[in-house]
Design the sequence.
């Protein structure tokens, strides 16, 4: 599992009004930042999810966790968590909490719009299509293949490959096809 798997906050994580801080930054600059991310154990982001993390950050979506998917441990599909830090002290006041919810709602809307644009020009079977899954009122959301936490089928290398290919296609769309 990769660096962001522990849901750590890296030094470059965005907050508050800076939610779209990476918009307009070059892919190379954002990728250089992503290459520096490590978790509390010093592990880097899984190589198989780095493009998706980079692409989401270039698109203005702050990431805080990710995994390329593994059959032997963890979840058997790739996922990227989008979760803003929120304004300083946001959890201490009702106004701060409302500001955080509004920020999170805007990020979720942006993710949904990007997924909709992607699927307007990309065909995929329903079982591999990506979607944003809420983590709760104070959490962000995870971009993953649908309903995989409730999936009762045993994990397989073939399915994991299809899930990874879909995440890679979305990353490619965000970086090069969403003009």
Sequence:
């Amino acid at each position: 599992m990769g660096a962001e798997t522990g849901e750590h906050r890296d030094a470059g994580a965005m907050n508050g009004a800076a939610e779209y801080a990476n918009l307009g930054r070059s892919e190379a600059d954002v990728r250089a930042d992503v290459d520096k991310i490590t978790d509390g154990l010093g592990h880097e982001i899984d190589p198989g999810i780095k493009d998706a993390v980079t692409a989401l950050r270039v698109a203005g979506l702050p990431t805080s966790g990710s995994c390329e998917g593994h059959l032997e441990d963890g979840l058997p599909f790739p996922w990227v968590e989008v979760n803003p830090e929120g304004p300083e002290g946001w959890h201490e006041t009702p106004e701060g909490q409302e500001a955080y919810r509004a920020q999170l709602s805007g990020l979720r809307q942006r993710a949904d719009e990007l997924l909709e644009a992607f699927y307007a020009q990309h065909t995929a079977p329903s079982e591999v299509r990506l979607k944003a899954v809420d983590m709760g009122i104070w959490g962000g959301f995870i971009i993953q293949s649908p309903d995989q936490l409730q999936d009762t089928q045993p994990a397989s290398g073939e399915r994991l490959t299809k899930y990874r290919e879909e995440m890679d296609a979305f990353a490619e769309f965000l970086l090069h096809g969403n003009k």
